[in-house]
């Protein structure tokens, strides 16, 4: 009995038919939409509802995170853009030209996250420039969260369609 064949016969290692990929996708977007600019969104709702010290903590945390994000962009922004572009291009070519399913899966996870990163950087610049307080800050963070959730919904939809297509192609290959 060949245990290697038995184990890998039971465990499907293709990305889109693997339960762990879908769990990762759900956790990624759940976490991303909850933490807006590094601030948990429940803190925004508590600050909006109660004000006082919670609002001051939120304002301080947003200030810290926006300054940190802008510092990283200023110091190493061009290098990050080059590295991210290289990695996404490599994943896209491996995945969609050479049909490496793992590269497709990672690309479908990371490509929308670059859009979220760019939106977060833009929001950080806006918040640092305008310095909104109170309801204006809460509205800006809420708007960013809604946009991130919309990107997440579109990303999950496209990923699930692509994953179903890939799984149907595998089963079509088995039938022949």
Question: Could you write a compact summary of the structure shown?
Answer:
The protein is mainly α. The chain has helices spanning 3-10, 19-34, 41-50, 52-97, 101-130, 135-175; strands spanning 35-36, 39-40. The two termini are 28 Å apart.
Detailed description of the structure:
This protein is mainly α and about 180 residues long. Helix content is about 85%, strand content about 0%. The chain contains 6 helices and 2 strands. A hairpin with a 2-residue loop joins strand 1 (about 35) and strand 2 (about 40). Helix 2 runs antiparallel to helix 6, helix 4 packs antiparallel against helix 5 and helix 5 runs antiparallel to helix 6. The longest helix has about 45 residues, at about 50-95. The protein is elongated. The two termini are about 30 Å apart. The model has no long low-confidence stretch (mean pLDDT about 90).
